[in-house]
Specification:
Length: 208
């Protein structure tokens, strides 16, 4: 009789622990997926700049945690190159290609004010921000254990593969929203200390 009671007790304990067990690697990966990290507003902006109807089957894919590792490796190499690492992208399932892509890299310096390409407008956001109809760039500072606590200048870029149907002003705002939201998500994964210049929510910044 005792063995039977013991078995019942073990089964009951197993059921109680099921709901509180530690999250496994697959759960943690899901929490760091692009679909989870990016806000609904940023994902909607990706669809608009890519000209993808809201009704289309679209995936938001990437490996944000790998981007963190790649930036840490780039820091370890002394920022020897300016290679950008893909963070997230919007994929229309029927195409198989990303329609919009966000990348990050460590930068050596800020762009010189007033010297950017003619298709860019400069904005007061982060350390510096530039936006066009197909591309936007945001620079912000991050002090993180990934960078040995030394503040690093991070460059985020969003770029569309195709021509944009939106009016220019709307496209620039959408691009800034995307790169801001992606930078916010990356800052969280990097555990950047306060003062990075990336706010919790997006507000269209004034022109510089």
């Amino acid at each position: 009789m005792a063995p039977l009671l013991l078995a019942v007790a073990l089964m009951a304990t197993g059921c109680q622990d099921e709901g509180t067990k530690p999250k496994g690697p697959s759960d943690q990966h899901a929490e760091a997926s692009c679909d989870k990290l990016l806000s609904a507003q940023a994902k909607a902006a990706m669809l608009r700049v890519a000209g993808i109807p809201a009704s289309a089957e679209t995936d938001f894919l990437g490996n944000p945690r790998r981007t963190v590792d790649q930036l840490a490796e780039q820091y370890g190499k002394g920022k020897a190159d300016s290679q950008g690492f893909t963070f997230c992208g919007a994929y229309k399932r029927s195409s198989g290609l990303d329609s919009v892509r966000v990348q990050f890299s460590l930068a050596h310096e800020l762009p010189e004010k007033g010297k950017s390409a003619s298709f860019f407008k400069e904005y007061r956001m982060g350390k510096a921000a530039l936006a066009g109809t197909k591309v936007a760039v945001l620079y912000f500072e991050c002090s993180s254990a990934q960078f040995s606590g030394t503040p690093q200048l991070v460059r985020g870029e969003v770029r569309s593969r195709y021509e944009v149907d939106e009016p220019s002003a709307a496209a620039r705002e959408d691009n800034l929203r995307i790169v801001h939201d992606s930078s916010r998500a990356l800052s969280g994964l990097l555990k950047c200390k306060a003062g990075s210049g990336v706010t919790d929510s997006f507000r269209m910044p004034p022109a510089a």
